[in-house]
Amino acid sequence: MSDDKDKRVKVEVEEGDQTPSEAEATGAGAAAEPEAIEPEAVEMTEEEMVEAAKRAGVAAAEADFKADAERARTEAGDLLAQLAEAQDAVEAAQKEASDATERLVRLQADWENYRRRTATERLAEKERAAEKLVLGLLPVLDDMERASEHAAESAANDEQLAQFVAGVDAVHDKMVSILAKEGVDVIDPVGEAFDPLVHQAVGRVEDKEAYEETVAQVYQKGYAMGGKCIRSAMVTVTYGGPKRPAPEADEAAEA
Question: How far, in Å, CA of 218 to CA of 201, rounded?
Fold first, then answer.
């Protein structure tokens, strides 16, 4: 029992710096003040002190852990916010890149369409200019043909006139050859079926031998350029003959 008494530690809980004796002396001098309450002494064994120290350490560790966890949560929240901002920035950059790509594709398509359109317009303009030139030359060819036909009727006994007619025909044929190289074709449909797309009927001739609506005579030749009829041929058309068979029947007969 004496050992246990030696191990006990007397702990006094004091208020202020005065001892109990000093407090009593002071209290005697000041009767009006309330009497001080003497703190109770708490006696703890060494093991209890160790346990208390452990509990205090655990509590401090828990407090530190909580503080670290709170700090980690705060940092994690900041990192998540930064990550969200970075993702938004990446999405914005991707959208901007996609918009730029779409604009580039549209510009390329617009440029390609413009290039094709301008090329087509230039070609059409060139064709119109050539067509205008050819149309201006056709009356000259018509006059040469009529002059040659009229002179040929009177050149039977005139050698010089016959040579002149031959020279005019040569010039005419040369002009026609030059036009042919530029894609101009002569429409001279004598004996062919009448085609209102390239023929212009100026009269009708009765002919019971030929198919009905056959070109009997050409008063003025027509011309086509690049597959387009630039001047219809002026012709007379037959009537009174048998009906022309359908194109399918002609093809079957040829086969």
Answer: 9
CATH code of residue 235: 2.30.22.10
Percentage of the chain surpassing pLDDT 70? 79
Task: Confirm whether 211 is domain-assigned.
Answer: yes
Residue 249 lies in a domain: yes
User: What ranges in 155-214 are assigned the alpha helix state H?
Assistant: 159-181
What would the two tokens of residue 58 be? 């655990």
Comparing C-alpha atoms, which of 236, 224, 223 is closest to residue 192? Answer: 236
In a domain, 76, yes or no: no
pTM for this model (two decimals): 0.53
Contact present, 181 and 217 (Cβ < 8 Å): no
Confidence of residue 57 (pLDDT cuts 50, 70, 90): confident
SS3 content of the chain, % helix, strand, coil (to 5): 60, 15, 20
Q: Which of 209, 212, 219 is nearest to 193 (CA)?
A: 212
Q: At what angle do helices 46-154 and 159-181 cross, to 10 degrees?
A: 170
In which domain, by residue range, is 190 found? 184-255
Instruction: List, in sequence order, every residue forming a beta bridge with 239; answer none if it has no partner.
Output: 206
Domain contains 193 = yes
pLDDT number for residue 167: 87
Give the three-state DSSP class for 238: strand
